[in-house]
Amino acid sequence: MTMISKIPFSALVASLRRVAVHRGQLIARGALLAIIAPLMLVSCYLPEAFTIDLNVEQNGDYRFSYRGLLVQSTITEALLNEEIDADEEEERVAKVLADLKRDSGVKQLTYQGMGIFNIVYERRSNIMRDKSFVFVRRNSRILEMFFRADSNTVEIRGGFVPDQYEERLTALGYQMTGKIELRTTAGIRSHNAAEFIETGGQNRLRWEIRSITDPVPNVIIG
Q1: Residue 82 to residue 157: CA distance in whole angstroms
Q2: DSSP per position, 37-106
Q3: How far is CA 137 from CA 38, 93, 116, in A?
Q4: CB count, 10 Å around CB of 206?
Q5: Which tens digit of pLDDT belongs to each residue from 191-216?
Q6: CB of 90 closer than 8 Å to CB of 78
Q7: Model pTM?
Q8: What are the two backbone dihedrals, phi and then psi, of residue 212, each rounded to the nearest 5 degrees?
Q9: Residue 122 three-state SS
Q10: Cis, peptide link before residue 13, omega less than 30° from 0
Q11: From CA 60, how far away is CA 14, in angstroms rounded?
Q12: FRET pair for 197, CA 20 to 30 Å: which of 2, 27, 67, 85?
């Protein structure tokens, strides 16, 4: 299991796919089914090899960017289980591209194969006016922000993988690796950042995610 977890997820799923096609055996296919099945239960989109930058001003203005990969788990699962052919894969990919591109924050989006998409996403707005912001979707929450009017605070939370799926996803090679940086001129009421620096009237918080068990952002500012 240790050796598998060190293999990049995108490379591992391609390797598993080649093995399944080459062998064409029910036993191998059954093994893939057992390993991949949890993906669909976890989320529609899983982040990989990403960088998140978030800047929040004291007046609520914010700038958010995500650069990296998104794994569309239902496509990955269907391909590894040999449930769809190339034509159906193309149809599903087209639907994902159309769905994501409805959001004006998507600046670049390309399909890398095996249900993996490369995306550049940028958004500017005001959290006090919007009240909430979720990336990517409410059922695939990689990062979310909420404005609490009663306490005049903004809560920022990273996405997570439920405990019951962590071991199987780790065995598959999925690690949710990434880097997150938050900069804000607002005060910090609480945080779990690995690195916290206050300089020039700005607070900087950083997280480096190396596995799905690492702490994800949990911050209250205001």
Answers
A1: 36
A2: HHHHHH-SEEEEEEEEEEEE-TTSEEEEEEEEEEEEHHHHHHHHTT-S-HHHHHHHHHHHHHHHHTSTTE
A3: 19, 17, 16
A4: 15
A5: 999 999 998 889 999 999 998 888 88
A6: no
A7: 0.82
A8: -70, -10
A9: strand
A10: no
A11: 43
A12: 67
The per-residue b/e assignment along 158-197, b for 16 or more CB within 10 angstroms, e otherwise, is: bbbbeeebbebbbebbbbbbbebbbbbebebeebebeeee
In this predicted model, which residue has the larger pLDDT, 122 or 21? 122
CA distance 144 to 138: 9
The rounded mean pLDDT for the chain is: 82
Residue recorded with tokens 């005060």: 187
Give the span between the Cα atoms of 44 and 46, in whole angstroms: 7
- Banded model confidence at residue 78, pLDDT cuts 50, 70, 90: confident
End-to-end alpha carbon distance in the chain: 43
Q: Are 217 and 182 in contact (CB under 8 A)?
A: yes
With a CB cutoff of 8 Å and minimum separation 6, the contacts of 159 are 43, 47, 140, 141, 142, 143, 144, 216
27-47 pLDDT, tens digit per residue, is 334 443 344 444 444 447 889
Decide the pairing of beta strands 61-72 and 116-126.
antiparallel
Distance from C-alpha of 75 to C-alpha of 82, rounded to nearest angstrom: 10
C-beta separation of 34 from 14 below 8 A: no
Contact at 8 Å (CB) between 177 and 213? Answer: no
